[in-house]
């Protein structure tokens, strides 16, 4: 199958939350008496901040960390060496404040952090640090498959791909710089493809229609292992649209189309013949093309060039749903394609008008199973398996696993190459 050189450049926003107040306990005392300074409930806050004062060669991905005892952080102010304020947002756990844009190399920054105790006592700590020169190490290319101002399907995973892949020992460090915020809140987690070439973010269930998702991949200048740095800082915000899903059964050669959980149409299909079978598994629509060309010269079982209409990509390996007027007589009866899902021109046109990038497409009963990382395979495993792929601890509320992956019609309320390289199959 030939390679279709296509990559979406996408941007990515941080989740902000307010740290919880640590309340102090009080003991009964006689009127007019006052506990000694330092007694429980009267102890002043203890505050340690990072980077350490006068630190140098600090990465431009530096965050202002704050460890507090007997209180909470109530103010953070970060300024550069010209006195300009650097805007920052807190991590969900309140452990650090993350600048909303990368810091600049070889600049000096100051941070003033105020903590307030349960009885109103405050403590202020300051630090000044200098960032490192612009790195000369090669950058790991990251691609965020989540664009801004789009409408996506309810199965859309936030996907970041890496070239070269991220080594296992560096994945937690990278994952800490990937942020997702949903409105209304629908918490999820990241999960890595085993070879480190992709990482997916999703919730236990499909996104609720109307959800706004904001993403940030804050990787520019991030040290990754000993030999690489991150390449860019990307942000994007988009919305989840109506719920649409497709189910294809090889036994019947029929595609069932669901909208908002209701079956709206059945479409005859012709799948991959035994020598070039279609994969069974849960896929996600990745791209939609009104017109494209399948060029399979030099690929196994290929050697042809054909123009097709109304094509929707499902895998990096070249499996598409597309219009196939040449196989209408076989659709619903016999598999004759090179791995694609053939439908009639009228059905392909209708599908293009109802589907969205991010819709789930499930196949069953074919000769081979979908390979991890061949497309956006975040839904091809159970939630219990998905969370095992996180390089960081999964929040307690997300650990209980559903007994099964949600039915594709329900409304929700490793590729061996470093970065998936699209190739085009014919069919």
UniProtKB/TrEMBL annotation:
Q: Name one GO molecular function term.
A: peptidoglycan L,D-transpeptidase activity
Provide GO CC annotations from the record.
Answer: extracellular region
InterPro entries, per this entry? Big_10 (IPR041280), LD-transpeptidase (IPR050979), LD_TPept_cat_dom (IPR005490), Transpep_catalytic_dom (IPR038063)
Where composition is biased (Low complexity), the residues are 409-427
A GO term (biological process) for this protein?
cell wall organization
Q: Which UniProt keywords apply?
A: Acyltransferase, Cell shape, Cell wall biogenesis/degradation, Peptidoglycan synthesis, Signal, Transferase
Q: In which pathway does it act?
A: Cell wall biogenesis; peptidoglycan biosynthesis
* Catalytic residues identified in the record: 322, 340
One Pfam family recorded for the sequence: YkuD
Signal sequence segment = 1-23
Q: Which residues form the L,D-TPase catalytic domain?
A: 244-371
Positions of the region Disordered? 398-427
CDD domains in UniProt: YkuD_like
Q: What is the name listed in the Swiss-Prot or TrEMBL entry for this protein?
A: L,D-transpeptidase
